[in-house]
Write a structure and sequence with these properties.
About 35% of the residues lie in helices and about 15% in strands. Helix 7 runs parallel beside helix 8. It has an eight-stranded parallel β-barrel with strand order 1-2-3-4-5-6-7-8, surrounded by five helices. The protein is built from 20 helices and 20 strands. The chain is of the alpha/beta class.
């Protein structure tokens, strides 16, 4: 095959998927910029710099503007094409957005430097990627139509070849095989690449992970069958749940017909830089650092594992990880075998986690799980468990149209809700995607942040021996810093303020309701009258109060939603157990709550 004589092209994921998979997407722009010019000299086909979870993490955890990150990187790397991962109608969020938001987001992404758009739908429902593809083509940029690879009784090579033909007919410039969980085997990899290349006259790009340890053999088979482009990661952030090491691929092909032509010495220099950078993110590093062939059963993608570990740590339930990993494939089967890639990986993973943490399967069902089962994310690949469907449907029908066809244009409402203080299109798009998180981000943007790791915290703020490690809040470095510690099982917020140079820190401690940053105080609504027979509504899970739907004095019926909680990036509706009047509300929006905490009283 002639393609076998062509140099293999390489996309490096160091600035996106590599740290998303290994470091919970926490790498800061300040650690990317110093090495950017050298990355630009390598001669990659592209650099994955944006999309996926990076947008969310920038505003949720890093107090960084993701648009500005892309602009700064492009200034440092004008030669290398920038690639992003776009979730079709989900963009970089967790729900479907209206077409007008999709169009504006894609065009603004082009403005800040994105050249290649890897566009996928978590369910391989290509109705959900059509608008994004059309907009990219209108902008004169490259569309990488993507197949989300998974393994199930209903997925096979024949189906994937059919998908590749459909993507080609829709206008794709490149066909991507996205093996987000590292589920490919050498035999299937070779067959899949060969059959797709025989069926469509387009370059084939393989994205896969090292999770199961088969990645080297898989890449070799793909190369033998003429794959045009592959994803790798600089060795400092390669392997484990990340990609195969760039340097290994380059060295292995040196002198062969598929020689990449990349400079190994330059790659070594870049890797040495990221080895030092990695040390700054030790607290976020996944415990999964080797190989686990059992992932072929759980099918959990690389980025999901490190984030799931981090989420369980936040819930003080890391000991439940193995149980959650076993629950994931059961939930996936119940839901009709969706591929596990954002957002369905979060939906299935969060539901599996809730099933374990609550001790009862589907005792709590997230809003996203309900909507996915009802077709609001697209068509599920297989039959849904009937008992689960009956539980969530409550008389609603499963939709069979393109979900976005049910959405009215959103932009004008976004501008109105964001308010007069939000004036740029970029900020309005950020608000459209993550309204609650964006509001907090706009308030803190540009302000200095406290140290990001416990190891950097001032000694005076360290927890006493035997307590949980403190976590820094996002207080300005020049003012008081708040650290959350647990003493004898009770959480405290410790505020450390500093005087002039050489002065000792002043420490003040106050008990808080959660191990997360101190929650806002309860509302001033009156408590339930003594002996009034009011029923306390407890929080069904740990999380953050996103929306309070009722006021004191409101009449509610059994099953009415009184509050919405966010946990693990998914929303859960809290409903009234019986009819009555809201006597008191015990929390405010933005409050962090634990399982069993009182949310409201209804009598």
């Amino acid at each position: 095959m002639n393609t076998q004589a062509k140099p293999l092209k390489v996309t490096d994921t160091i600035l996106r998927d590599a740290h998303q998979s290994l470091l919970a997407t926490r790498m800061r722009t300040e650690h990317m910029l110093p090495i950017a010019e050298k990355l630009d000299q390598v001669g990659y086909f592209s650099l994955e710099t944006w999309g996926g979870a990076t947008f969310d993490s920038c505003i949720r955890f890093l107090n960084e503007d993701p648009w500005e990150r892309a602009r700064q990187l492009k200034k440092k790397m004008p030669k290398t094409p920038f690639q992003m991962l776009l979730r079709g109608q989900n963009l970089v969020g967790y729900r479907h957005y209206a077409d007008d938001i999709v169009e504006r987001f894609v065009k603004k992404s082009v403005d800040v430097g994105i050249d290649i758009f890897r566009i996928f739908d978590a369910l391989n429902d290509f109705r959900n990627i059509r608008k994004a593809m059309e907009t990219v083509k209108e902008c004169g940029k490259t569309v990488e139509g993507t197949i989300s690879y998974t393994v199930s009784p209903v997925h096979n090579v024949e189906l994937y070849v059919k998908m590749a033909k459909e993507l080609a007919n829709m206008g794709s410039d490149i066909i991507c095989i996205k093996d987000m969980a590292g589920l490919l085997t050498p035999q299937i990899t070779g067959e899949l690449v060969r059959e797709i290349k025989n069926s469509v006259d387009l370059p084939v790009h393989l994205h896969t992970h090292a999770t199961t340890g088969l990645v080297g053999m898989n890449l070799q088979r793909a190369i033998e069958e003429g794959v045009d482009i592959v994803d790798t990661a600089i060795s400092a952030l390669a392997m484990g749940t990340s990609q195969y090491a760039t340097e290994c691929l380059v060295a292995g092909l040196k002198g062969s017909p598929r020689d990449t032509g990349l400079d190994l010495n330059l790659l070594h220099e870049i890797s040495d830089y990221f080895k030092d950078v990695k040390k700054h993110y030790a607290e976020f590093e996944s415990d999964f650092k080797s190989v686990d062939v059992k992932i072929l059963d759980s099918q959990i993608p690389g980025g999901m594992i490190s984030n799931m570990e981090n989420q369980l740590k936040e819930q003080n339930a890391l000991d439940k990880l193995e149980e959650v990993l076993k629950e994931v494939p059961r939930v996936r089967k119940d839901m009709g075998y969706p591929p596990l890639v954002t957002p369905t990986s979060q939906i299935v993973g969060s539901q599996a986690t809730l099933n374990v943490l609550t001790g009862e399967r589907y005792k709590v069902i997230t809003k996203e799980t309900r909507e996915c089962l009802l077709g609001k994310y697209g068509k599920l690949p297989s039959v849904i468990d009937q008992d689960l469907l009956n539980k969530v449907s409550e008389g609603q029908k499963i939709i069979d149209c393109r979900p976005a066809d049910l959405l009215s244009p959103e932009w004008e409402e976004v501008v109105k809700e964001a308010g007069e203080s939000v004036t740029t299109e970029e900020d309005r798009l950020t608000f459209a995607l993550f309204p609650k998180v964006a509001e907090k981000f706009f308030q803190t943007r540009g302000k200095p942040q406290a140290p990001s790791t416990p190891a950097q915290a001032p000694k005076a703020a360290q927890a006493p021996a035997g307590t949980a490690a403190p976590q820094a809040s996002s207080a300005p470095a020049s003012g008081p810093a708040v650290y959350n510690v647990t003493v004898n099982g009770r959480p405290y917020a410790v505020e450390v303020s500093f005087g002039g140079a050489g002065s000792a820190p002043a420490v003040a401690a106050a008990p808080v309701a959660t191990t997360a940053p101190a929650a806002p105080a309860a509302t001033s609504a009156p408590s339930a009258p003594a002996g009034g027979g009011g029923e306390s509504i407890p929080s069904p899970l740990p999380g953050t109060v996103v929306t309070i739907k009722v006021n004191v004095g409101d009449a509610v019926n059994a099953g009415d939603t009184i509050m919405v909680l966010e946990s693990m990036k998914m929303e859960t509706e809290v409903k009234a157990n019986s009819a009555g009047t809201v006597q008191s509300i015990q929390v405010q929006e933005g409050a962090n709550v634990q399982t069993g905490d009182a949310l409201a009283v209804i009598g």
